[in-house]
Structures are given as structure tokens and as C-alpha cells.
Amino acid sequence: MSGPAPLEAAHQLVDRLFREEQGRAVATLIRVLGDFDLAEEAVQDAFISALETWPARGVPDNPGAWITTTARNRAIDRLRRRSRLNEKIETLGREATESALRTIEAEAAEDVMQIADDRLRLIFTCCHPALAMDARVALTLRALGGLTTPEIARAFLLPEPTLAQRLVRAKRKIRAAGIPYRVPPAELLPERLDGVLHVLYLVFNEGYAATSGDSLVRRELSAEAVRLTRVVDQLLPGEPEILGLLALMLLHDARREARVGAGGELILLDDQDRSRWDPDRIEEGRALIRRALELGRPGPYQVQAAIAALHDEALAPSDTDWPQIATLYRALRGMAPSPVVELNFAAAVAMADGPAVGLAMMDGIAASGELDRYPYLHAARADLLRRLARWSEAETAYRRALDLTTNRAEQAYLERRLAEISSARRNEPLQN
Hints:
This protein is mainly α. Among the domains are: 1-110, no CATH class; 238-320, no CATH class. The chain contains 20 helices and two strands. Helix 8 (149-156) crosses helix 9 (160-177), helix 15 (322-335) runs antiparallel to helix 16 (339-353) and helix 16 packs antiparallel against helix 17.
């Protein structure tokens, strides 16, 4: 145990630990208690206790294990306050429960690369085929990734109350159906794969471009998504879409250090210092996508990884093979059609064939209304309008994107663009 920690330092540490350790603690308690809500409430209590005690008593030597152990104790306290305590103990089995609880602290410090990982068990539990796909993804992001309900709602483009209701229904379904908390046997793994990969993809995306907060990047979420994808690859070796997803993550993550400036500002792909890209991750990602494609079963993640590889292979923005990228997006539309894929296809066409062509496609997407609350549609339209010197329309689109954006780094970028447009309009020559 270290000495007393300054209040601000303790708050910073607890905030970091919440992102890094919350998922592990919740997963461990769910395995022991079989109760999602009780596990989440107990872990939240533990972090509150850390904020209250660490500034005065000091930070424990193993803060992650302290959180898990404290959460265990809080869960026991909550059970004791419930009128149905005896029924709960009988259901769990008194001796088995006490034995399991005694091992929680030790397990919290074990090597997290083992296959029998509580977090991996939790993913497969949440991705049970009895649950709807969106419920599987949302529940895992909430329980494992520690994302808040508003963050998940934004990822799904759903109103927050709707998403909250889905989470409640998913937990209720797990209890009512007696869905087991385990990694399923080998013969059942393939039917769970789509949901698991979707979960990992969204967790990575939240780490790569955080939906809210001051920081653009949440490294621990990206790292966790990569780690768990490697574990899933070990469970199902030779599955091309797992290889494709892992390649996609690594090829994007290779650019992480160049995406944020010294002051935390967002730096877009064309403006990044490519010497800061991680060559080892790029090479591993390229090797993985080659392995996946050799298996002869192409899928959406493999296509997206191939697109990312084309970006990473370009030594300068002008070297980017935009016609090939547009061709790959056209293939992706056939495999996994969605408004977001249509938007990305339109952006690639704009780079290959000119902003006016891409803008016409984006205007059609905007007219459908499906992405009206998706800030990247409005930001992409604004960029093309800016390139076409249609300043007033560009300003309107940028302001709409700004209204919908909750990440401070992205807000600052949009504000800079608005300032540039204002300057351009002032300097524009008068028309006769």
C-alpha cells in the first residue's frame, strides 16, 4: 500500500482503472453470482469506495485486485440486505460460493491471456443466439467494455431510452432462459461467431474514436478488442473472418499515434505524419489478410482490412489507390449493405472521380433520413461542399455535424473547419 494519494491523482487513477478493470471485475462477479445487475452495481460501489478511501489511505499495491475484492464484499452486503438471501445461497450452493469468492482476488491477478478468461466467457454468454443481435452487442459493450448507455446508444444510432430497454430485456432473457455463463463447446462456436466479431469490432471502434469525452482515443478498449480477437482466433483457428477482423484492427491501430496532435487535436488521414505509423502492426495486418484471402472465403471484415491495407501502403496521400478502394467498397455493399457502407463508398468515389460525384451520392443518402443523426454524414458532406467552395452549405453541414458530436477532439476539429470557412467567405471576391 502506497502513502496517501493527492485527490486529483487518485481521481485520475480511478478513472483509468474504471476503463481498464471494470470489465474484468464485472465478468468475474457475474461468473460467481450469476447476476448482471448485482455485479455491475457492486463494481460501481467499489470504484466509489476507491474515490473515498485512496486519497487518505493510499493506493493499494494491486489496485485491480482491490477493486474486484471490494466489489465482491459489496455484492455480499447487497445479498444480505435482500429478503431472498437464503434462496440465493441455496441456488448458488453455500460451499461452492464461499470457495469461489475466496479465489476472486487471486484470479484477478492471473495471466489474462488464458483461454478460460472470464471476459471471454462473458462475451459468449452475451452473444447467445437466443438474444437478438443488437441486444448481444449492446449487453457485452455495457457489461464487458464499461461503455455507458448513451455511448452505446450513439454507436447504434438509437434513442437512449430504447437502448436502455433492450439492455433490461436482454438481462431478463438470460435469467429466464438459464443461458449458461461459459465458452460454448467447439461444435457451438461457429453459430456465435458473427455476434462475437460484431462486439469486438464495436469495442475496437469505441477505443479508436471515442464517442464522448475529451480524448479521441481510448487505448485500453482498442487493446482489449485486439487481445480478445487473438483469443477468439485461438479458439477457432483458420476462420478467415476472424483473421480479417484482427487484420483490420491492427491496420487501423497502426496509425493511432499519428491521429492525435500534441494538444490532443484530431489529425485526419491525409495530414498525418506517416513516419509515425507502426510498421510492425502494418506488416502483421497485411500478413493476416493474405492468410485470410488464401482460404477462399471472403467476407466483410476481410474486405475492410484490404481497404485499410491500401491506405497503409500509400507512402503519401497522393499515392492512395482510390479507384481500387472504391471497387472494394462496391464489393462490401453487396456483402454487408448498410447506410454507413454507402456513405464510405460515396466518400471513396469522391476521391476517385471528384467531389461533385461523391456529393450527389451523399445527398441521396441524406435524403433517405437514415443517417440524419450520424455526425460523419454531415461532416463528409461538409468537406465535399468546402472543396467545391459552396461555403454557405458547407457551414450549415459542419454545424449540423458539430451539434451531433459529443467527443471534444472531434468538436474542436469541426470548429476549426468552421473558422476556415468563415475566413474563406470573407476573402471571397464579390460577384458582379
